[in-house]
């Protein structure tokens, strides 16, 4: 029972933390959050990528059709894996469109106690959505040459799973990943803000319960901290999929993070470093899961995202920008 209580507390606080990220916004953030107008482009809403009611995406098409090729940027919404919607990111997606990219916001089946959706099932939905996004863009007259993927919080986790785990099956080359405060690992000892680091039967049961919900299958507490556990949890552990061939990455985490414990981000940073993946890491010393502190550093993160997109995505004339 304690494990399920802990899991419920995590999912509630994670969703609330994700909400604060959008409610508390510095004035400069307006540069990265624009209103969709005819001058920016058009939006095709609620396009289906699968049979489930949640399997829909919105496609943002820039107001300059007829180019030989376009970069696609997918941005995945936050919400603690239990809430949120692609419409929450309308301003961010419109900004991406205003920069000349085809942009897409993707919904996925949100977890409830009834449906048993998990991080794993959600990541599989995102994987299945990408080819449909590319097809829809091309049907609208916007041929896609390459792509980037990003997200925040839960969306950050789903973005990194696609980038590190599934990029090899992407319908177009994946060039770039950006994400903020997405859990990249599920090591019990890192999740001390929930008391999961304590070596007691209760804390081990809580860890197995929480991580089992995230994975979508029951985890035996006795295998925690063992190589067997690492094999079991790998499907949803983004850092475990990093290789020397992984795409350039920009990430941001706060040292005061309690919702997605800061220590869990260290594995991702270390994996990027050990595999010599080009990356920029922004550590915010007064920052938790929201945007209320360290505005200057968070702006540096967003500026790095903008620069990374310009560097690694298609230049708009059918030639890869990073091939020059």
TrEMBL record:
An MF annotation (GO) of this entry: hydrolase activity
Alphabetical keyword list: Hydrolase
SUPFAM superfamilies (alphabetical): alpha/beta-Hydrolases
Highest taxon in the source lineage: Bacteria
Domain BD-FAE-like: 58-272
Gene3D superfamilies registered for this protein in UniProt: alpha/beta hydrolase (3.40.50.1820)
Protein name: BD-FAE-like domain-containing protein
Species for this entry: Faecalibaculum rodentium
Lineage: Bacteria, Bacillati, Bacillota, Erysipelotrichia, Erysipelotrichales
């Amino acid at each position: 029972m304690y494990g399920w209580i802990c899991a419920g507390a995590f999912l509630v606080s994670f969703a609330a933390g994700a909400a604060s990220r959008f409610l508390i916004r510095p004035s400069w953030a307006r540069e990265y959050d624009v209103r969709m107008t005819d001058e920016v482009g058009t939006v095709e809403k609620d396009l289906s990528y699968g049979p489930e009611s949640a399997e829909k995406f919105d496609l943002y098409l820039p107001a300059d059709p007829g180019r030989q090729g376009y970069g696609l940027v997918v941005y995945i919404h936050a919400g603690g894996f239990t809430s949120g919607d692609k419409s929450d990111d309308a301003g961010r997606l419109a900004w991406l469109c205003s920069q000349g990219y085809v942009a897409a916001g993707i919904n996925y089946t949100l977890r409830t106690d009834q449906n048993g959706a998990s991080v794993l099932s959600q990541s599989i939905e995102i994987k299945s959505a990408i080819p449909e996004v590319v097809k829809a863009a091309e049907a609208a007259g916007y041929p896609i040459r390459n792509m980037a993927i990003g997200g925040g919080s839960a969306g950050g986790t789903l973005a990194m799973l696609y980038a590190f785990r599934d990029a090899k099956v992407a319908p177009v080359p994946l060039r770039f990943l950006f994400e903020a405060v997405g859990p990249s690992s599920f090591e019990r000892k890192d999740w001390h803000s929930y008391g999961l680091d304590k070596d007691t039967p209760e804390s081990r049961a809580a860890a197995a319960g929480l991580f089992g919900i995230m994975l979508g299958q029951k985890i035996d507490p006795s295998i925690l901290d063992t190589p067997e556990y690492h094999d079991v949890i790998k499907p949803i552990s983004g850092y475990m999929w990093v290789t020397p061939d992984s795409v350039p990455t920009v990430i941001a985490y706060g040292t005061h993070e309690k919702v997605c414990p800061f220590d869990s981000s260290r594995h991702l940073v270390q994996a990027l470093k050990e595999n010599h993946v080009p990356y920029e890491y922004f550590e915010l010393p007064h920052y938790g899961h929201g945007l209320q502190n360290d505005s200057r550093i968070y702006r540096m993160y967003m500026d790095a995202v903008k620069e990374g997109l310009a560097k690694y995505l298609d230049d708009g004339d059918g030639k890869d920008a990073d091939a020059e």
